[in-house]
Design brief:
With about 350 residues, the chain is α/β, with parallel strands linked by helices. It has a single domain, classed as Thiamin diphosphate (ThDP)-binding fold, Pyr/PP domains (Rossmann fold, 3-Layer(aba) Sandwich), CATH 3.40.50. The protein contains 13 helices and 7 strands. A hairpin with a 2-residue loop joins strand 4 and strand 5. The chain is globular, with a radius of gyration of 20 Å. Bound molecules: thiamine diphosphate (TPP) and magnesium ion. The site of magnesium ion (MG) has 6 residues, from strand 4.
């Protein structure tokens, strides 16, 4: 029997309210198509990157988020340009959804001077402060205290912004998760915590390493309003994010969303993920967030051509980003000493 990806990790309390919230309102087609566009952009970016890696055109590896696109698309649909996000090692979707330029991101993957970090960061360290993207991060759970610190800064300065903090299901078993949530709750900081539960922490299933009722229950135990939602249903996510983000923005303190999704690829571009069955992956593919939204909007009368046009446009834009990155110069060797934090370092 294949494992149902929707039920292999603990989901905790309030699993039904998100679905009820979503069912209670008519679909805003324009907003839904906007999220569809963002999901297509993320999918096209990563599929192109995987091809380029296979062809030997890109150095290193990437951590693809194919199958998980609904989470950043829905979360960032409720963010303002002045809001912030913190990310993970699997961060392309977070940056793109927050408005990062695909050409600058592709330039970064190629290691070129045109990259978002001038070619010094690579896939796993993309940051762009100009759009509030505070950085991808190779250390599991390290984005959590960064988000909380940013939110403390916002509060001290009396700003109106909020922080969306993305992290994986593996992060909930590390110390910074408790530290960060506790601090945010004590100071009622404007953070929307978003656990992207893709079923795995590297090669291990979440259920094998997570005790009790899981992420949302842990957040509730600290006093945060928390809910588990279907992370492959962008409309369900959107309905919950809108409500929770409005509360965070209104000064009600941090909120927590546990989004159940599925990592369709391996952990990295090198991982064949043969520790799971073909049938299990097929089950997840049937829940693909892009196809699901297209099917549902189609039932409401949105023509198939609209989805095809959006998808083709996003693919073209990414292809152009690839060509721009290929043509961009390498960083000058002297630039290795620019943008480096050296305060207090011995000379
Ligand atoms: C502190 C720390 N421990 C271990 C690792 C090695 N590692 C990299 S990704 C990963 C799994 C993370 O799982 P999860 O948080 O669920 O994120 P996902 O990869 O599923 O997106 C691990 C253990 C690391 N990068 N940092
Ligand atoms: Mg995971």
């Amino acid at each position: 029997m294949p494992i149902d990806p929707s039920s292999d990790t603990p989901t905790g309390p309030a699993a039904d309210s998100a679905a009820e919230r979503r069912a209670a309102e008519p679909v805003d087609v324009k907003r839904a198509l906007g999220m569809y566009r963002v999901m297509c952009r993320i999918r096209a970016f990563e599929e192109h990157a995987l091809e380029l890696l296979k062809a030997g055109e890109l150095p290193g590896v990437i951590h693809p988020s194919i199958g998980q696109e609904a989470v950043p698309a829905a979360v960032c649909a409720s963010l303002e340009p002045g809001d912030y996000v913190t990310s993970t090692h699997r961060g392309h979707g977070h940056a793109l959804a927050k408005g990062a330029d695909p050409a600058a991101m592709m330039g970064e993957l190629f290691g070129r001077a045109s990259g978002a970090c001038k070619g010094k960061g690579g896939s796993m360290h993309i940051a762009d402060f100009s759009i509030g993207m505070l950085g991808a991060n190779g250390i599991v759970a390290a984005g959590i205290p960064i988000a909380v610190g940013a939110a403390q800064g916002i509060k001290l300065k009396g700003e109106a912004a909020i922080v969306a903090c993305f992290f994986g299901d593996g992060a909930v078993n590390r110390g910074p998760f408790l530290e960060g949530l506790n601090w945010a709750a004590v100071y009622r900081l404007p953070v929307l915590f978003v656990c992207e539960d893709n079923g795995f922490a590297a090669f291990t299933r979440g259920a094998a390493t997570t005790a009790g009722y899981g992420a949302a229950a842990r957040a509730e135990s600290i006093g945060l309003r928390a809910e588990s939602v279907d992370g492959n249903d962008v409309l369900e996510l959107d309905a919950t994010v809108r409500e929770f983000a409005a509360e965070v923005r209104g000064g009600e303190g941090p909120r927590f969303i546990h989004a159940k999704t599925y990592r369709v690829t391996g952990h990295t571009s090198l991982d064949k993920a043969d520790y799971r069955s073909v049938a299990e992956v097929a089950l997840a593919l049937a829940r693909d967030p892009l196809k699901r939204l297209a099917r549902e909007l189609g039932e409401q009368g949105v023509e198939a051509e609209i989805f095809e046009t959006i998808e083709a446009k996003e693919r073209d834009a990414i292809q152009q980003a690839v060509e721009a990155a290929r043509a961009a110069p390498w960083p000058e060797p002297e630039s290795a000493f620019e943008d480096v934090q050296d305060q207090g370092a011995p000379r």
